[in-house]
Amino acid sequence: MQSANRLDILGTKTMLEKESVKDGDFMHPGHAQKIIYLDVCALCRPFDNPSSLRIRMECDAVLLIEDHVRQGVYRTFVSPMHVTELNATADLIEQQDVLMFLRAYGENVRGNLAEIRTRAEELFCNGLGAADAAHVAFAESENAIFITCDDRLEKKCQKTKVRIPCMNPLRFCEQENLR
Predict the structure, then answer these.
(1) CA within 20 to 30 Å of 7's CA: 71, 76, 78, 113, which one?
(2) Domain ranges in the chain?
């Protein structure tokens, strides 16, 4: 099966298998913080050329979200897919800055690896790219709000009816009333 082989490249075999947590409020039991999952597109937005208004606004939104993660308002997760994509990033400053943020504030995804892989394969078969399918499957395993700057991915997530909210950073900041 081609999708399984493509997903094996993503480094998901290194993740520990544990039970995934499900909660309709996008919070883990016993924790007041909402759980978010920023994909690499969102995490790298602050390094994009700020020549367009949209990029500047999304950059500000991502930085605002990261500040709230640092303050403990939100919890975020890091997956093997983050590391795989970031290791392929040509800009070493961008790569190291994002990896430092994830190491300092990202918790390792704890979901069941077999279930995550199966879900990623489903998403891949439904039209998401391999990396996007893996990110969404990891986010679903933590019942996290999925944040991306990729409009096409956001639309595909809505069309595919993923199990979690998927939105861009601006919409998330507006919804959460972040200032």
Answers:
(1) 76
(2) 34-176
Residue 125 C-alpha from the chain's centroid: 19
What does each C-alpha distance from 56 to 45, 128, 137, 148 come to in angstroms?
9, 27, 29, 15
| Residue 16 exposed, middle or buried by CB count within 10 Å (0-12, 13-18, 19+) | exposed
Q: What Rg do the C-alpha atoms of the chain give, in angstroms? A: 15
At 19-56, the pLDDT tens digits run: 333 334 455 444 468 999 999 999 999 999 999 999 99
Specify the pairing of strand 106-108 against strand 145-147. Answer: unpaired
Query: Per-residue b/e over 17-51, b at no fewer than 16 CB within 10 Å?
Result: eeebbeeeebbbeeeeebbbbbbbbbbbbbebeee
Domain 34-176 sits in CATH at 3.40.50.1010
Q: Give the pTM.
A: 0.83
**Alpha-carbon gap, residue 21 to 144, rounded angstroms:** 10
Two tokens at 174?
């507006």
- The token duo for 123 is 């998403």
Q: Where are the alpha helices (H) located in the chain, listed in sequence order?
A: 2-8, 40-43, 53-70, 80-87, 92-105, 113-125, 130-141, 151-160, 169-176
Q: Contact, 61 vs 170, CB < 8 A?
A: yes
